[in-house]
Amino acid sequence: TEVRGDIDFTRFSDKSQLVNHIPNAGVVTSKLNLIKTLRDRQRVLRKEAKQAPPGGQLPMKDYFPESFTLTLGSDKIALLNACQAALRGDEGERDSAWIIKPAASNCGRGIVVTR
Hints:
Blueprint: H1 26-29, H2 31-49, H3 73-88, E1 98-100, E2 112-114
């Protein structure tokens, strides 16, 4: 809820429960939406960088692990390239761990870690 008046406090037991809802939190609370949000922000920063002095921007790859959204054709190709590099044993790809997570699952369901 966005407004305290929208909360029905009579439904809570002993008034000991807390309501915490941040509007539009889904843009950062699911991995898929977080990836989309970070990529959108990266595009905006790149566009702004063309008009601003150089430096000061931290590339997404420096603070967020490489991620692939398999609903995007470009990400499927990037994933295949990364898999091929890992299979060839390219520098930096040796012994890398891969985390596979279904987009619609939560609470750790469906997560697989592989090499």
